[in-house]
Automatic annotation (TrEMBL):
This is histidine kinase. Gene3D superfamilies: 1.10.287.130, Histidine kinase-like ATPase, C-terminal domain, PAS domain. Keywords: ATP-binding, Kinase, Nucleotide-binding, Phosphoprotein, Transferase, Two-component regulatory system. Pfam families: HATPase_c (PF02518), PAS (PF00989). It comes from Granulicella tundricola (strain ATCC BAA-1859 / DSM 23138 / MP5ACTX9). Residues 1-25 are annotated as: Disordered.
Length: 386
């Protein structure tokens, strides 16, 4: 939030309500308000509408006469989107004219005359006259479309993560299950009890692997809202276990240099997703084998001196193809037409940003790619959650 005195509108409060009406001469500033594309309304110290522009009336479905003089909160902001009552005192606009606290770019909803609601982004400033607050002016725009598009993206983001995880689990579970099937077959035909016991032991080992993968998956997917110290060595090792059979099958060698003295505060599920996305991309980029190198060490940010950890994930694969140039962290950019959704890196960047970290990429076509992530030991997200 900006300092209050820097963000204050010096408008003179109208002595009388002004209405957009054909039968009264319009004030010049009313014409100005009406020319704006954004919706604008003003309220007095009681929250009563003092002016409203044409764009606001169009979006809200009211006539000016129906709003002027009425309590705006009671007219258009009376309930939360979930149907519960929205007390005026909880409304951020109330804080503007009662406590001189401006609001900028807040997403909220308002009701139309017909009872339907839509999502808006609003800013509100106090109206001052001789340094005393007289009311507030609210500007808003309809962001419903934008919000719906964002929600659709979030849904596909989750679906993509689930799909990716499901295929890696199916793959990893399939191998030990095939082995168990073979061993059961051998138990049936075993000549001696000793042979049968031996095969049963082997089957048990394979089943423990299946259980282990399932456990990892459950941990992976458990929703977590609070950041907690994460041992990244353990996290990386657990993710690599999901690829235990696929890497050797493709002749991919894994080199790990994991030594961090810090355990950063992170949302572990999110960070697993980040690492899994990057490791999965590296795997996809090495269809004919290669080396995956994962490094983890403590690293202080050179610019800010904030302590943190650095993770690098390097592959000797295809490198980024020209089609991806300029679209690195944008959603839906993929070169894997059938198998990819193009959401992995976008999700990754979002999670790193949420942790106030940084992510960089270097790549050379035909030679490989290095992703570097830096995460602070403590982030504001972690502080809020802690
Ligand atoms: N390590 C890498 N080496 C080469 N190209 C890469 C690498 N990582 C990502 N890319 C390129 O970036 C594109 C986008 O990656 P991203 O992870 O966002 O989506 P995706 O892997 O295509 O699909 P998914 O949503 O399933 O992850 C990939 O299609 C690929 O072309
Ligand atoms: Mg990917």
């Amino acid at each position: 939030m900006m300092p209050e005195d820097l963000n204050t509108t010096h408008l003179t409060a109208p002595a009388q309500p002004h209405v957009t009406k054909g039968d009264a001469p319009e004030q010049p500033w009313q014409a100005l308000l009406d020319s704006a594309g954004e919706g604008i309304w003003g309220v007095d110290l009681e929250g009563r509408c003092t002016f409203v522009n044409r764009a606001a009336l169009r979006m809200l479905g009211f006539d000016a006469q129906e709003l002027i003089g009425q309590n705006m909160h009671a007219m258009i902001h009376h309930h939360h989107a979930d149907g519960s009552v929205y007390p005026a005192e909880d409304c951020s606009v109330y804080n503007v004219f009662r406590r001189n606290r401006p609001v900028s770019n807040e997403v909220d909803h308002v009701f139309r005359k017909d009872g339907s609601y839509f999502w808006i982004e609003l800013s509100a400033q106090p109206i001052l006259h001789l340094d005393k607050v007289q009311g507030a002016v609210v500007t808003f725009r309809d962001v419903t479309q934008h919000r719906m598009a964002e929600q659709a993206l979030r849904r596909s983001e989750k679906l993509a993560a689930v799909g990716q995880l499901a295929s890696s689990i199916a793959h990893e579970i399939n191998n030990p299950l095939e082995a168990v099937l073979n061993l059961v077959y051998l138990v049936r035909g075993a000549d001696t009890l000793e042979d049968a016991r031996h095969y049963a032991n082997l089957a048990e080992i394979e089943l423990v692997r299946v259980a282990d993968i399932t456990m990892q998956t459950l941990r992976f997917h458990r929703q977590q809202t609070a950041a907690a110290p994460v041992n990244l060595e353990d996290t990386i090792t657990a993710i690599l276990r999901l690829y235990a059979s696929r890497f050797p099958a493709r002749r991919i060698k894994v080199e790990q240099y994991l030594r961090a003295s810090h355990e950063p505060y992170l949302l572990e599920g999110d960070i697993r997703q980040v690492l899994n996305n990057l490791i999965r991309n590296a795997y996809d980029a090495m269809p004919h084998g290669g080396t995956l190198t994962i490094r983890l060490h403590s690293a202080t940010c050179l610019k800010t001196s904030i302590p943190g950890v650095r993770i690098t994930i390097a592959d000797t694969g295809t490198g980024f193809l020209p089609a991806m140039r300029g679209h690195l962290f944008e959603p839906f950019h993929t070169t894997k037409e059938v198998t990819g959704t193009g959401l992995g890196l976008w999700i990754t960047k979002g999670i790193v940003d949420k942790h106030e970290g940084r992510i960089y990429m270097r790549s050379r076509e035909g030679q490989g790619t290095v992703f570097t992530i830096w995460l602070p030991v403590q982030s504001a997200a972690a502080a809020v959650a802690a």
